[in-house]
From TrEMBL:
This is DNA-binding transcriptional ArsR family regulator. The keyword Transmembrane does not apply. Pfam families: HTH_20. Transmembrane segments: none annotated.
Length: 117
């Protein structure tokens, strides 16, 4: 990932509905969600949701797959991983001990466990 790709990805996420959409799609990996389900879950009108999904798609953060008359959206976790690695690639100016808490937090199994009911 280069700087322009990172900027496009971060800009796409720098809006409340798009951030909520991306987080919702991450929570529904690997099945994904139909566009209508995303809109209903977030209480966003269909045309507005389509515009948000288009921005996320152009940034490479979501992928769309047609299944009959339905379009199913999935988070592109490889792209998200690339963006995250771009952000921390030169971790703390050559002082990795400063990034150790971040790496430890990301390495906890609980970060990927479903939320408690």
């Amino acid at each position: 990932m280069d700087e322009n790709d990172a900027i496009a990805s971060l800009a796409a996420l720098a809006q409340p509905t798009r951030l909520a959409t991306f987080r919702l799609l991450v929570a529904h990996e690997p099945e994904g969600l139909a566009a209508g389900e995303v809109g209903r879950a977030l209480a966003v009108m269909q045309n507005t949701m389509s515009a948000h999904l288009a921005v996320l798609s152009r940034a490479g953060l979501v992928r769309a797959e047609r299944q009959g008359r339905t379009i199913v959206y999935r988070a592109d976790l490889a792209r998200f991983r690339a963006m995250t690695l771009y952000l921390v690639n030169d971790c703390c100016g050559g002082r990795p001990e400063l990034c150790t808490p971040l790496v430890a937090e990301l390495s906890r199994p609980s970060c990927c466990e479903p939320a408690s009911p």
